[in-house]
Amino acid sequence: MAFILRIYQLTSGQEPEGVESLKALAAALTQRAKARVVLCRQVNDSRQVLWVGDAGSEAALERGRRADVPEPSADGLWTASPPLALGFIDEFYHSPPRPYQVWALEVRVPPEQQLQALKDLLSLSRAARRDPRASGFSLYRGLDAPGVFVGFLALGWGATPTSLLCNGLVSPAVSERIAGAGLWRPLALICELDGARAAERAAGDGRTISPPPFWARSRLSAPEDSLGLQFTGRDFA
What we know:
By secondary structure, the chain is α+β, with helices and mostly antiparallel strands. Helices cover about 25% and strands about 35% of the residues. It contains 6 helices and 10 strands; from the N terminus they run βαββαβββαββααββα. The chain is globular, with a radius of gyration of 17 Å. The two termini are about 30 Å apart.
């Protein structure tokens, strides 16, 4: 099973109302489809909100792909990017976690660079496993857009992806390619909504998201429902 990523742009000056609108929309979807949705704000841009959603059934996934959510919204509180369906590639998670900041990574490359991008991101995953500041990393790829890769990285508070890329475990060439093709977004949890339990988990102080992290494969997708690319760091050693 894949999950869906959307990026919402809130209308300037109406950010609180936009967030409440998205929470209501997520609550309605999770109740209808018995799915799970996580909303995160982008720390360095209060107008950006990420929607990470378990599609639930295949029918619900198709409804999401057909832009079931209006764009822009009827009340003008936000506009939405097209839904991006993602399949699992690789993941690690250290437990128990330390206080951490979640960073979302988006990499977009043309067809001729897709294999190299995949190798580079798996190199990053290997390096993160060995860096004591990293609590976890999860990597996904667009099901209908194979040149789009999305990762979620949990780093100790105060550390940055740049410091991870310069930790001596990632080659300069890999660091340069990821920096050139990638966009990092620091995130803070707004809420989690789970229609199966009809419960909401709100954010704390933004520094720690309780385990397991929202992107953990065991909660959003299963290994047998991935892209079929069950790579680990050893595959490109």
